[in-house]
Amino acid sequence: MLRRLHIQNYAIIDEIDIDFSNTLNVITGETGAGKSILMGALSLILGERADTSSLQNREKKCFVEGFFSVDNKKAVEKFLTENEFDFEEELVIRREISASGKSRGFINDTPATVQQLKELASSLVDLHQQFDTLELGDSDFQRQVLDGLAGNAELLSTYQKNFRSWDKQKNELEQLQKQKETFQKDFDYHQYVFNELDQLSLSENELENLESELQLLTNAEGIKIALTKVYFELKESEQPIVPQLKILANQLNAFSGYHKNLPELVQRLQSAQIELQDLADEVESLNDQTNFDQKKIDQVNERLSAGYKMLKKHGVQTTNDLLAIRNDLSQKLEAVLNIDDTISTKEQEVKALLQKAEDSAKTLSTRRKKEIPSLEQKVNALLHQVGMPNARLKIQVEPAPLNIYGTDAIEFLFDANKSNRFEPIRKVASGGELSRLMLCIKSLVAQSIDLPTLIFDEIDTGISGEAAKQVGFIMKDLSSNRQLITITHQPQIAGKADAHFFVYKEIKDDAIKTNIRLLSQDERITAIAQMLSGEKPTAAALENAREMVMN
């Protein structure tokens, strides 16, 4: 709900504040007084293009601020959350235009783009002006009307859940099918590479271990000579080290009773002799195991050559890299063998979900079609009331491919002159016809759809008398549950107002300015009487106006 509108330095408006009621607000005034200027200013916070020509005083900025009560509107809360704006009970949208033409928008004092203003405003204000294309010709709105009247909210939510599940699984199936095509294209190559690696039959770290083994084999003769010499010196030379240590230990042991340090030295010599004896035995064993084997060297070189070839071919460095490639190829080949089963399972899932979505869509379509005769009858009756006795609405539902809203292509068709030539609304209805048709439809769906503040700018053009009176009744009824603001020239509509604002021009500081004020009940009677009979209303006009206001 638009609680307050503040405008400063816009066109011939110096500064005004308008505090709107939460029901029916009527704005009247002489032609040229500035009613359309108000709508122009309002459109700025709704995200319309800014024009520096609207700045009368080039030394000051233009400000337009709208103060809204959001009343827990889910769409507004969702927008603010998704776009990281502060969520407060009072929502303030501001637009500033500098003298240089730079325009800035703000939502709750946080900078916002024009597109963000426009998106948010669509949930707050529904502005209808003469010659607007209007959302009435939009297929989404037409569907919302039918679903709202048919009470399809819960069913539509269930259907959309089914549709999204089906669509997700369908996409996964398509990916699997594409994957199968790719697998089949690459299968022969993958099989060839895998066979190469599998036939090589490498074990973990094998090439690295073979490199170490080759070093040992190629140096076997030198190693064996060194080991033989060590063993010889330890045990078989003319004075072998091991026996000599034993002799030396025995010589010292003979005198160990005469010196307190000798037993320790004897023990250490014995330990050294035992350690060297073990060392000699290990050297002998290692010497026996070490042999130069040209055949084995050739075998290792051949194995390494095959391994190095694979490393180079695949651009990797280690045996384990090759094993990882082989395992990956194995999984891909396994996937080719299993993908048909996976696709078959997925096809069954998709088929079941599609059936579920189609069943929900069929129910939706049935309920929509069931609602059409009643909606057509009620709208056509209202059109007759609002001065369009020859106009008729016809709703056409054609089959459409399954989509997020079902399988219906909904089109509102219009015949303004009982010609039986129904055409899409957006092609044939005039601005005034569209506005009154929209009023009729929205009055019917007001309880079913979460409508924003409705603003009608002179939708009463071309009507008077009883038709204008009926438009007033419809607006009054519509405003009982939501805020409605209308600019009108019709006294019959003005008489229904809960808050009646009068736009006028005044001279201020030698300049003509537009201003607006809320009329008291007596002022309303006078203003409506002037609308009936002129600037100096007759007694009959005043009495008639009083009756309109009081009733």
UniProtKB/TrEMBL annotation:
Gene Ontology terms, MF aspect: ATP binding
Q: Where is the RecF/RecN/SMC N-terminal domain?
A: 1-505
CC annotations in GO: bacterial nucleoid
Q: Which UniProt keywords apply?
A: ATP-binding, Coiled coil, DNA damage, DNA repair, Nucleotide-binding
Task: Please list the GO biological process terms of this entry.
Answer: DNA recombination; DNA repair; SOS response
Pfam families reported in the protein's UniProt record: SMC_N
Alphabetized SUPFAM superfamilies for the sequence: P-loop containing nucleoside triphosphate hydrolases
| InterPro entries given in the database record | DNA_recomb/repair_RecN (IPR004604), Leu-rich_rpt (IPR001611), P-loop_NTPase (IPR027417), RecF/RecN/SMC_N (IPR003395)
Gene3D superfamilies linked: P-loop containing nucleotide triphosphate hydrolases
Is the Lipid biosynthesis keyword given for this protein? no
> From the record, what ranges are coiled-coil?
156-220, 262-296
- Report the domain of life of the source organism: Bacteria
- Record carries keyword Cell membrane: no
What the entry lists under PANTHER family is as follows:
DNA REPAIR PROTEIN RECN
Q: Which family does it belong to?
A: Belongs to the RecN family.
Q: What does this protein do?
A: May be involved in recombinational repair of damaged DNA.
User: Which protein are we looking at?
Assistant: DNA repair protein RecN
